[in-house]
Amino acid sequence: MTHYLFTIALLPPAVFALFWAVKRKKHTGMAAGFWFDMFLVTLGVCALLAALAYPDSAASFLFLVCAALVFAFLLLFGVYILLGLLLWNTVQMLKRERPSLKHMLTLILALAILALMALPWVLGKSGLFPWLYPLWMALLGTAVFFAFHSLVFLTAFYVGKWFPPRKRVDYIVVLGSGLIDGKVPPLLAGRVDAALRYAARQKRKTGREPCLIMSGGQGADEPRPEAEAMREYAMEKGYPAELVLAETQSKNTRENFLYSKRVAEAHSEGKPYCCIYATSDYHLLRAGLYAGRAGFSCDGVGGRTAGYYLPNALLREYIAYVVMNKKRYLTIAAVVFALSLTLWGALALLAWFARML
C-alpha cells in the first residue's frame, strides 16, 4: 500500500511540471489553465486516497469529513450561491456604471441559469416532459461543457496573474483602450502602469529599461491618438522620453499588434528582440490570441481591474474568446448536443418500450 501511494504521489508533481512547461512556452493560454486544473485535481485525488488508506488517522478522518461536507454543500447549494453572487454583482455594477448590455452580463447569465433550472418544471406542467426530456438533457450537457470550459478560462486568467513573465525584454507593447476627454482614464492608466512596473523590476535586476510602444489610434470621438496621451502619461511618471515610442494607426487589438510589430522591427533595425505586451488583466488571454495571429510571439502582463467590474469584464472576454474560435466551439457544442440527445433519446425510447411491454 505504501509503495502504491508513493507512486500515486508522484503524479501531482509530474502534472505541475507539465503545466510549467506549457506555461513557459505560452504564458497566456487555455492550455496552461487546463493543466493547472489537472494539477489541482490530481493533488486532491492523492489526498483523498491517502486519507482512505489510513482511515484510523485523526487527520485523515478530519479530511474525509471536511471533503464530504464541502462536496455535499456545493452539490446542494453551489448553483444558488453562484446565482446570488451574480445578482449581487449586478447591483454593484448598477451603482457604479451606467446601465448597458456589457454591464449587465452577470444578470443575463443569472437569468439563463434560472431558465435552464425552470425548464423541467415548465415542461412537466405542460405534460410534454417525458418526450422532451432528452432535449433538456442535451441542453444541460452543452451547458456543462461550456461551464467546464469557462472554468478553464478562469483558471488561465488567474495563472496569468499569479505567474507573470520574468524574462528580460526589449519592448513592451501597451494596448490602448480609449481616452476620456483626451486624457488617460483609470482603465488605460492601469495598462501603462503594468508596463512601468515590469520595466522598473527589470531595471532593478539588469540595469536596463525596455522601450515602451504605446499602441492606439484616434477614435472618432477622441481629440488625439491614444498613443500620444499614453506616451505623455508615461513620461509624467518619469519614464525616459527616448524609450517611449508611439504607434498611432491602430483601431483595434489586432492592429495594435500588427502595427506595433512594425515599430519594433524598425526600431531594432533587424536585430533579434524580445517583447511582451501590457493590457488589462482580464484581457490577457484574448490579447494573446491576437498576438499569435499577428505573428507577434510574446507574453503579457495585466493591469489591475476593480473587483466589482471584473466579473462582467471576464464574461465579456470569455464570450469574445469563444466567438474568435466560433467554428471550433460551435462544432464541439453541436457534437456534445447530438451525443447527449442520442443517448438520452435512446434511453427514453427504451423506457417507453419497457412500459408498453
Tally the beta strands.
5
Helix count equals: 12
Largest beta-sheet details: 5 strands, parallel
**What is the residue-mean pLDDT, rounded to a whole number?**
86
Structure description:
The termini are far apart. α7 links the parallel β1 and β2. The model has no long low-confidence stretch (mean pLDDT 86). With 357 residues, the chain is α/β, with parallel strands linked by helices. It is 69% helix and 7% strand.
Question: What are the main properties of this structure?
Answer:
five-stranded parallel sheet, 69% helix, single chain, globular, 357 residues, 12 helices, alpha/beta
Compact summary:
By secondary structure, the chain is an alpha/beta fold. Helix content is 69%, strand content 7%.
Give the SSE layout:
Layout lengths: L1 H8 L1 H15 L4 H24 L4 H39 L8 H22 L2 H34 L8 E5 L10 H21 L4 E5 L10 H11 L7 E4 L5 H16 L6 E6 L3 H10 L5 E5 L6 H15 L1 H31 L1
Parallel strand pairs: 1-2, 1-4, 2-3, 4-5
